[in-house]
Write a structure and sequence with these properties.
binds magnesium ion, 4-stranded antiparallel sheet, Carbamate kinase, alpha/beta, 34% helix, binds aspartic acid, 415 residues, 8-stranded mixed sheet, binds adenosine-5'-diphosphate
Length: 415
């Protein structure tokens, strides 16, 4: 019997009517004689509400007790969806991470799954039941609850699909698939029929929260047949797939534009320029468990240099403390921080075979007088940091500059 994993996000679980609607989607696949495992997120806004409670009482983000609190939203959703299914005459059993045995490391708030025991799920499927798993949560070696990072229910779904060798994993959300840009920012954004894994990994890491990056990495590693679809509108959605020779024929230079408002920048200025300064700064940052994204070191002038780097907004306070300490030790002139920035990125595997992407991007931004603060590139993406107030405008401008709103846009004329 084919096995399908379906995941419903926060908006899809947003209220009782929507949960009943999600139940009908589940039943729609069950009656086609499929085995079904459903993964659910907390009702929209619930994880933020729970996190806020934890922070208000003095809790911190990456903490055992905080994880216990913020994991509960998914428990409620799993119970509610199971009741909705039972009431329609389909036997459903809700399960939490410790019942499935989703084992993770002990990085509270951002844990990684290292194993899933499929036995308990299989037992229920064999009894013809629909299994409804609470997403976002795991258990560590000591049996404590962990959470998988924001958006982590996607990863629960894909990891379960991989463990069960599912025929398909459908991520149901509030848009009709993966688009050429965030449709809430760019109204002209277009649904893509397919996105390559390489591109999707970049998109997810550059702010397209439609799939959590770890879910894409998991799907790529274990070759999960992954789709993003709408809970509310019937349609083909988007398939996330490996590229093949035929696909390459019609590759676009740029296939999407992403916007990330979650970064902040720090500058350590006037550092005496000598070997080892970058190592000193970034080892201290890494020792504190913080992840640095972009780094720029200016050419030194009269023996002094400036170092600028970005971290996520939630890590800014900690990173600033570290930078101030190390700045003192290195006799730096000053340490500055700025959280009013956004990262705008153009992404596409077609960049490998085309030139002119960077110049198109820089000209489009300059035409609108948007200053580029930092730049970083990889084989298939270019990112620019701009002032936060320009985030949406810059995203729309680049979407237009690469003709992404038009089907068969052929933005590859620089071949
Ligand atoms: P869920 O609660 O279902 O997990 P999320 O809010 O995590 O949903 O992700 C869906 C949202 O991702 C969409 O509503 C959309 O605003 C945003 N998004 C950002 N970039 C993209 C993109 N390129 N394609 C589709 N959606 C995107
Ligand atoms: N509820 C969690 C969050 O809001 C996980 C998820 O929605 O995937 O981040
Ligand atoms: Mg999500």
């Amino acid at each position: 019997m084919p096995l399908i994993v379906q995941k419903f996000g926060g908006t899809s679980m947003g209220n009782i009517e929507r949960i009943k609607h999600a139940a009908m989607r589940v039943i729609g696949e069950k009656i086609k004689n499929n085995e079904i495992v459903v993964v659910v997120s907390a009702m929209s806004g619930e994880t933020n509400r729970l996190l806020d409670l934890a922070l208000q009482i003095g809790g911190s983000h990456n903490n055992l007790a905080t994880d216990m609190i913020i994991s509960t939203g998914e428990q409620v959703s799993a119970g509610l969806l199971s009741i909705a299914l039972n009431n329609k005459g389909y036997e459903a059993v809700p399960m939490l991470a410790h019942q499935v045995k989703i084992k993770t490391d002990g990085s509270y708030g951002n844990a990684r799954i290292f194993s899933i025991d499929i036995e308990n799920i299989k037992k229920e499927l064999d009894k013809n039941k629909i299994v409804v798993v609470a997403g976002f949560q795991g258990i560590d070696d000591s049996g404590y609850i962990t959470t998988l990072g924001r958006g982590g229910s996607d990863t629960t779904a894909v990891a379960i699909a991989a463990a069960l060798n599912a025929d398909r994993c459908d991520i149901f959300t509030d848009v009709e698939g993966v688009y050429t840009s965030d449709p809430s920012i760019v109204p002209e954004a277009r649904r893509l029929d397919k996105v390559y894994f390489d591109e999707m990994i970049e998109m997810s890491s550059l702010g397209a929260k439609v799939l959590q990056i770890r879910s894409v990495e998991f799907a790529m590693k274990y070759k999960v047949n992954l789709f993003v679809k709408s809970t509310f509108v019937d349609g083909p959605g988007t398939q996330i797939k490996f590229s093949s020779k035929e696909d390459n024929m019609e590759e676009l230079q740029v296939s999407s534009v992403a916007c990330d408002k979650d970064e902040a920048k720090l500058s350590i200025r006037g550092i005496p320029d000598k070997p080892g300064i970058a190592a000193a700064i970034f080892s201290s940052i890494a020792d504190a468990g913080l992840v640095v994204d972009m780094i720029i070191q200016n050419i030194s002038v009269e023996g002094f240099t400036d170092l600028t780097f970005t971290v996520t907004k939630k890590d800014l306070k900690k990173a600033l403390e570290i930078a101030q300490n190390i700045g003192k030790q290195l006799n730096a002139k000053e340490v500055l921080s700025d959280d009013k920035i956004a990262k705008i990125s153009a992404i596409g595997v077609g960049m490998r075979n085309h030139f002119g992407t960077a110049s198109t991007m820089f000209s489009a931004l300059s035409k609108e007088n948007i200053n580029i603060i930092m730049i970083s590139t990889s084989e298939i993406k270019i990112s620019c940091i701009v002032e936060l107030k320009y985030a949406e405008l810059a995203t729309r401008i680049l979407h237009e500059a690469f003709n992404l709103g038009l089907k068969n846009n052929g933005n590859c004329n620089n071949k």
